[in-house]
């Protein structure tokens, strides 16, 4: 899809919003609202988006937003959808929008409960890999080796990024998918597909963050693309927790991870050994993913 | 006391430095404005002194890990703000009941709920007292400057160890984020309570005879820790006599050590007619008023600042009420501590609230105006 093919009249994110220049999360929600709108209710938890949605006159979204306490997005979403259904408004698409903290960390319990009950809404996690709103503190979505405000130089994030997709697959939900801003058509088709399915759906969107990752605002799309081509963030979907499918597959030849890491200042002090460790981890995860795809039951 | 070179330091940073100087070696927490700098400072400083910093998955986990670390034998602290403070309440009550020493910092922001994350307020003072359920004792300090933050953090750590009681530091966004020139004593120059290493052979965790130090879990002594009412070995009990005794025990220790807990400071006229009673950043505005009214103009005005807000300085207020016609209580909330002041003034003096709850500090002019009204 070309950018001029995006229909302006269906824009639900106004220009002049509160996001930083080059914000991946703003772009992600722009595509999201376009794909799922206009009959859309968004449940939003504390995250950068609670700032981006904005104080008047910078209110950014053309749809109602319920901004709920940090740990509760999954549960509030459950109530909203069931309430709307009971009141006869079952055609409204309910989207729970949370950052990585509100999904991987403090929001995990509520999300897991909702997934297990198979609540009928779409949980969208825009993942910028740290608590960016409060100034880049480590989250369990922060990749190994990154420097954060709570792991300042010479420290670095020691553990691996939590594998949220496997967790969601283990819940056996009808649909889960990864997406990122450099591939808007892929993201749109996944969102549309999710919208047509009933039950709990999970979309994990990698959203580059220029100030947090230490990159130029013009590099957002480039980094998003590199994350995919290095195999760091593969694009795939999972149906019913068992059928794994690649949606963007560039073949076995992946770009070396070093290219992705060295483009970001948060990995600046990462030595060769640690880079190799992370490369090894990414390769291993890639192999596991390929095996899951290869052994998936056909439809 | 030899002091190091004056440095420019933020309140949140002073809190972290004070904690480390008081022997704190464990921090577990979760980022929340305006307290995040405490966590960031601890993350940067603790590894250098062999301490442990853990970024937890949520606010509840931060409080819970601190309790665990304290039982494990480390001095432990966590910091948060309004919404996080609400989440920590259940574990906070558990620490009071099980008598586990720890320090919880609440850098207050405008509430209720998410409120205005970057605006100061003093709206959690009653939550500090009654936020967790049941009849429980609470110790809460409220610093009015960066240096006060430093020494009250040390006092909090020491007291929590000595009394085996969680202590709250109720900062506000102004003091937490403000930078001031401070002279921080070198490590070890301030009195720090040493942990007791010689434990008597008849040691009991909740001895009827009085306070005993906590011994690290897992070796030497067999004991039980629970949020249930418990006997002197820590084992659960439903016996009415023991239940009552157990509750008395956690309250009595605060009464017994009242003098060590109570920090207040009076400045101004020796025989005041108008007194200001306040705490936290509002003390700064009140001090400016006393400076002008008393130091420059010799008017009968005084300021009683409360570094300790809980347990409430009842005797201090009673004594003040005997002297003055009126007590003005400026607070950045809709009136919380003013009710306590009224209670202990016992009608001997007029008690007047002065509230501001728009996310801005109370300025000296507002207080002067009220003081002037009572002097004329």
Roughly what is the average pLDDT of chain B, rounded to an integer? Answer: 94
Name the CATH homologous superfamily of chain A.
Thiamin diphosphate (ThDP)-binding fold, Pyr/PP domains
CATH superfamily of the largest domain in chain B: Thiamin diphosphate (ThDP)-binding fold, Pyr/PP domains
Mean pLDDT across all amino acids of chain A: 93
Largest sheet data of chain A: 8 strands, mixed
User: What string gives the helices and strands of chain A in order?
Assistant: HEHEHEHHEHEHEHHEEHH
Question: How many structural units, i.e. domains of chain B?
Answer: 2
Largest sheet of chain B, in brief, is: 8 strands, mixed
Strand content of chain B: 15-25%
Termini separation of chain B comes to: 45 Å
SSE string of chain B, helix = H, strand = E?
EHEHEHEHEEHEHEHEHHEEHEEHEHEH
**The top level CATH class name of chain A:** Alpha Beta
The CATH architecture name of chain A reads 3-Layer(aba) Sandwich
Helix content of chain A: 25-40%
Oligomer type: heterodimer
Which parts of chain B are unreliable, with pLDDT below 50 for 5 consecutive residues or more?
Answer: none
User: What is the topology, as strand order, of the major beta sheet of chain A?
Assistant: 2-1-3-4-6-5-7-8
